[in-house]
Design a protein that fits this description.
This is Iron complex outermembrane receptor protein. By secondary structure, the protein is mostly beta strands. About 5% of the residues lie in helices and about 60% in strands.
Length: about 625
């Protein structure tokens, strides 16, 4: 690294430390509070083997629902941005449109699941986070970093994000009303007045020993920070469960989201100034769990995701440059676990059927079928072993196998060394293959991406502290990148050869139980050193903005009535663009009511997460929440 680059980074880090110190000085430590979730006892929600968090040998980070609801965030997208190694790039605030990736991968290389069911979109990763899951329904968010094909199958190339919803424990009724503003006029259109955001959420749950239900409806509106960036979203989420008997249960989930937004600069700036997009997504899943014997467990699941995407390049002229896409993904899987005295065996089958009907991609369908097995044992003294493989068949790309292993060696009761290695695959999306637009064209000759990764780490766990520090090396073969030679030709994807990444990451969660209080600090740092092979003279559409440095410092606090949180993030990309963001939440709880106030981006930083879209500066939110529950 040359001297100017070092000075640049040092200056940015000094600014970050000064601002963080300012927040800490102003922070009311007497209000630190209690987190009711013990992460050490959480069972990682893998589909076959059940592994406690403190015994897992992978790089897994968990953000509990309690932590999520204490953060100064308004939706799932914003919560993901506080997870170490996760790169959340928003094209618009309030959940309008966002891409998510892990450890320098692309937004198509990260698998997203809800309760273990895959929700990634076969058309494009741009729609993956079009999910209507309210924060009040989240039990925890699990992030598994590194190739996860052995666990979750295809498309978990750089990792997986599994959103686990809350089990229903009691009947309740709740309502949440909130509004926010930058208290500034909208850019480019000052005559339209103050930029604002408003929303409401209502929900109810019904609990009985035999069956349980919960339903949420959410409405969000914004007039847009800039010209043609207003947004309007409706979200519905329903979850139910049935206890058949002690050994057999069922659960089901249904959701719908209508998301309409001005897309000025979202995909093809500056020509898309008048663009508008409407995305509707329906997702449903039905699963059951069966204990057939004292040692044998069976879990079938079916799920379906249907999306309609209406992209209007000229919102006032639908006769030209309009793209209509209708895609569907149906999945069926069967997972099993058999426990023995010397270890646990996992076995599963799954099939996924993808289909698209598009005005500029045509009509296409394909299917993917997988068989996978795992074995885990702790019978060797101080050593835990997990090995397995996933055998995949895709109707476009044929047969492939993805093995992997995890090893853990206990140095002491608190310290553990881990080593894991594995391979995975990413199948090109329909957009990669068939898109036919003026500024972007697909490539039906693409191969699937294949990755291999190895990671070594040390873990520490005791009553107050959970820590992880590790180094990984990843090599992606047939890496897909969208490139072009000049601004007057369209972008097109090609298999660019290899994409290699060296990475270091560390995360510490520290908490102390005090008198009616818990003191908690969550710190993380992520460093990536990518080597992207790209022919000279070409411009990459996405990878120029890959993260290089990422740091976070979260403080969440609560007494019986007061709660306060401070969240700090620093991101620097390989282009040297960087920004430091600080957000604060203060809340006060009364019987059945709570009031909260957020100040986001309190230093009013100007920054861009993706494309050419400036994100909002300093933002204030005020909300009131009501809940009645029958315990």
């Amino acid at each position: 690294m040359n001297l100017p680059a070092k000075n640049y980074i040092c200056a940015k880090m000094k600014t970050m430390l000064k601002r963080t110190a300012t927040l800490l000085i102003l922070f009311p430590l007497a209000t630190w509070g209690q987190d009711t979730t013990n992460i050490r006892e959480v069972i990682i929600n893998q589909n076959r083997l059940h592994i406690p968090f403190n015994k897992d040998n992978r790089n897994v980070e968990i953000l509990t629902g309690e932590q999520v609801r204490q953060l100064p965030v308004r939706n799932l997208n914003e919560a993901l941005s506080y997870l170490n190694g996760v790169d959340l790039r928003q094209r618009g605030p309030f959940g309008t449109q966002a891409d998510v990736s892990i450890d320098g991968g692309s937004f198509d290389q990260t698998l997203v699941l809800v309760n273990g069911a895959k929700v990634s979109d076969p058309q494009t990763g741009h729609h993956t986070l079009n999910l209507p899951i309210p924060l009040d329904a989240i039990d925890r968010i699990e992030v598994l970093r590194g190739p996860a094909a052995r666990i979750y199958g295809a498309n978990a190339l750089t990792g997986a994000i599994n959103i686990i919803t809350k089990a229903i424990r009691h009947s309740a009724v709740q309502a949440n009303v909130y509004t926010g503003s930058s208290l500034k006029n909208r850019a480019e259109e000052e005559k339209d007045g103050i930029y604002y955001h408003a929303g409401t959420q209502v929900g109810a749950s019904w609990y009985s020993e035999k069956h349980q239900h919960q339903l949420f409806y959410n409405k969000d509106r914004s007039n847009g920070q800039r010209y043609n960036t207003a947004s309007n979203a409706d979200r519905v989420f329903y979850q139910g469960g049935l206890a058949i008997d002690n050994g057999h249960t069922m659960e089901w989930l249904g959701s719908y989201i209508y998301n309409s937004f001005g897309a000025n600069g979202f995909y093809a700036a500056p020509g898309d100034r008048e663009a508008h997009e409407i995305v509707e997504t329906v997702f449903a899943s039905v699963a059951s769990k069966h204990r057939l014997t004292d040692r044998f467990f069976l879990s079938p699941r079916i799920s379906n995701r249907y999306t309609e995407d209406d992209y209007r390049y000229f919102r006032d002229d639908l006769s030209r440059a309009r793209s209509l896409h209708y895609n569907n993904a149906f999945s069926a899987e069967l997972n099993s676990r058999y426990e023995t005295s010397f270890g646990d065996f996992g076995f599963g089958l799954e099939s996924r059927f993808d289909r698209i009907n598009s005005s500029n991609m045509g009509n296409h369908d394909r299917s993917n079928h997988g068989i996978y097995t795992e074995f885990r044992t702790e019978q060797i003294e101080k050593l835990s072993v997990n090995v397995g493989a996933y055998l995949n068949y895709n109707t476009q790309y044929g047969w492939q196998i993805y093995p992997g292993f995890d090893l853990g060696y206990a140095l002491t009761q608190k310290w553990k060394l881990v080593l894991n290695a594995g391979s995975s695959q990413r199948i090109p999306t329909f957009t990669d293959l068939y898109l036919n637009q003026q500024g972007n064209i697909g490539n039906p000759a693409l191969f699937s991406e294949d990755a291999w990764q190895i990671e070594g780490a040390i873990k520490f766990t005791d009553r107050h502290l959970i820590g992880h520090a590790g180094f990984f090396y990843r090599d992606i073969k047939n890496f897909i990148d969208w490139i072009r030679a000049s601004a007057d030709v369209p972008y097109q994807p090609f298999n660019m050869g290899k994409n290699r990444v060296n990475g270091f990451n560390a995360n510490v969660l520290y908490s102390i139980q005090g008198h009616h209080a818990v003191y908690q600090i969550n710190m993380g740092y992520n460093f990536l050193d990518p080597t992207i092979l790209q022919p000279s003279g070409f411009t990459s559409k996405y990878n120029v903005e890959t993260l290089k440095h990422q740091a976070k410092l979260l403080l969440t606090m609560q007494r019986p009535q007061w709660n306060v949180s401070v969240a700090n993030r620093f991101n620097q990309r390989i282009s040297n663009k960087s920004y430091f963001l600080s957000d604060v939440r203060i809340g006060y709880t009364l019987p059945n009511f709570s009031i909260y106030a957020d100040a986001q981006n309190i230093f009013d930083v100007t920054y861009i997460e993706t494309a050419a879209i400036p994100m909002p500066g300093r933002w204030y939110t005020l909300g009131v929440r009501y809940e009645w529950s029958k315990n």
